[in-house]
């Protein structure tokens, strides 16, 4: 399995994506997953469509993409966090 490219996106690519990015990086290390995490603005997704393996975001995504899109608001609220983590791990291990 090659290295996965993980996009973490929020509106500005700064605040909430940092919280999610830190948590996802920790998960990647804990589970020995070969992946690079890229923190971006939601508007920048188009530049990564051909190279990304998964999008993890705290915003509403209007478009369809050729990779899994995972809602990560649970990292901010705590509600459904374990389910979100399992969804991320599944996407990264597939």
Automatic annotation (TrEMBL):
<dbReference type="InterPro" id="IPR036095">
    <property type="entry name" value="PTS_EIIB-like_sf"/>
</dbReference>
<feature type="domain" description="PTS EIIB type-2">
    <location>
        <begin position="4"/>
        <end position="94"/>
    </location>
</feature>
<dbReference type="GO" id="GO:0009401">
    <property type="term" value="P:phosphoenolpyruvate-dependent sugar phosphotransferase system"/>
</dbReference>
<dbReference type="InterPro" id="IPR013011">
    <property type="entry name" value="PTS_EIIB_2"/>
</dbReference>
<dbReference type="Pfam" id="PF02302">
    <property type="entry name" value="PTS_IIB"/>
</dbReference>
<dbReference type="InterPro" id="IPR003501">
    <property type="entry name" value="PTS_EIIB_2/3"/>
</dbReference>
<dbReference type="GO" id="GO:0008982">
    <property type="term" value="F:protein-N(PI)-phosphohistidine-sugar phosphotransferase activity"/>
</dbReference>
<keyword id="KW-0808">Transferase</keyword>
<protein>
    <submittedName>
        <fullName>PTS galactitol transporter subunit IIB</fullName>
    </submittedName>
</protein>
